[in-house]
Amino acid sequence: MGTDTPRHITLIGAGLAGALLATLMARAGWRVDVFEKRGDPRVQGYAGGRSINLALTERGRHALRMADADDAVMRQAVMMRGRMVHALDGRLQLQRYGRDDAEVIWSIHRGDLNITLLDLAEQAGANIHFDRRLDAVDFDARIARFADGQGGLHPVGFTALVGTDGAGSSLRGAMQQREELGERTEFLDHSYKELEIPPSADGAFMMEPNALHIWPRGHYMCIALPNDERTFTVTLFLPNQGDPSFASVRNGREAKALFLRDFADAVPLIPELERDWDANPTGLLATLYLDRWHLGDRAVLLGDAAHAMVPFHGQGMNCAFEDCVSLAHHLQASSDLAQAFAAFEAERKPNALAIQEMALENYVEMRDKVDDSGFLLQRELELALQQRHPQRFVPHYAMVSFMRIPYAVAQHRSHVQRDLLVRHTAGRTSLEGIDWAAIDADVHALLPTLEDAVA
Ligand code: FAD
Ligand code: E1W
Prior knowledge:
The protein is an alpha/beta fold. The chain has helices spanning about 15-25, 40-45, 60-65, 70-75, 110-125, 170-180, 250-260, 275-280, 305, 315-335, 335-370, 375-390, 395-400, 405-425, 435-445, 450-455, and strands spanning about 10, 30-35, 55, 80, 80-85, 90-95, 105-110, 125-130, 135-140, 145, 155, 160-165, 185-195, 210-215, 220-225, 230-240, 285-290, 295, 300. It folds into 3 domains: about 10-75 and about 110-185 and about 285-360, FAD/NAD(P)-binding domain (3-Layer(bba) Sandwich), CATH 3.50.50.60; about 185-285; about 370-455, no CATH class. The longest helix is centred in the last third of the chain and has 32 residues, at about 335-370.
């Protein structure tokens, strides 16, 4: 490959990962074409459908910084300092995520974020083709065929395809026809519904804006994230079967009754609860596992297309953004596409699996543990150990949301730490009289300093 001919890449999907990767590659001097099945959201409004806002954390922000996109995105972000736990009787408790306002997360609007990234991608020189749905791929001839929604089909030549087309990836389907990818989808037996809390009559937030609100209720829960237009998007996560479930709560009227019983403090804040319920689709939740993410030097998958996960750690987009930085790095580091794709897959697959597993575990923690006294005592010990051993004991949430250590490392250390917390709080109601010498010895024996762990 001559250095004077710019290298070329074709992305399928201009969602969150596609728009960021297009920016990174165009800035690195590549010719970039992106094909997106939807229309241009800057012309016809955002047709995103799913979850209106997302939590952005350090991993995602770091990736945005790599594309000089962080400032533009952060202008529309709302700070969330912690989780605000809503008890059944309406009492509120703010559980801070970090030590101070340097350790917070951010709520951002999916449509605004996508538009910001599309603008940056085009400014960097990427060509984005809207109303182009990937329909079929001839990997031997290196021709992809796109449907325009009006009955037209457009064959386009490519060097290599990158699948940033989300959980229902068409590229993955085409790759799978060519070679077994070992695809397995594990559906969660819970689904979700989104509802809206509008601003008050005088245009203010109806609840504390700088928090992620959680209503834990054992086998199900509600959450709410703030939007910068002073609304909140509420998401109810509920089992598919049993009582209550999406089988027993069949319409807006029955949903209102459930809310009056279990989320009473939220009811006056959601004026269109019944209408929202009946109008909004019920979303499915699943984890997607693949044995292989790439096909030689011809195609590779990333983001949800490669490893869709349940949303309970708020890391799907953050992980997809990390994927983009990693793939851009490997593409720059090697002139051999097959080698770059293989190196990317080897780096990211264990980490994607780790966050997929942690996201599943976090559902139980969020819906059933955050208001539990044993959990709160473990959290107290966790904070104390963080102060005593800042290089060794970093709380689970901080490793995932405030740091960029590989997810697999965070997962391993979290398991060691949780075991230690459980053992040393067993049978206690407070930390008074606890054997610090024994705990400190355990920390030193089980947790190498983080520098060593990352190196
Ligand atoms: P997507 O954003 O889905 O983009 C895929 C794009 O490809 C779309 O534009 C689509 O139109 C296009 N496309 C699809 N098929 C084709 C085709 N055949 N041809 C051309 N284009 C195509 N993550 C977080 O980090 N924080 C959160 O707080 C968070 N909350 C969530 C809450 C819920 C309820 C859900 C469901 C998910 C949440 N996520 C969150 C996860 C996050 O939404 C995804 O991980 C993220 O959107 C993945 O980005 P992506 O670019 O891979 O896919
Ligand atoms: C975050 C959809 C979603 C998004 C999130 C989070 C949760 C629960 C959910 C995980 C969290 C931000 N979380 N919150 N509190 N503890 N863990 O951090 O994004 Cl359901």
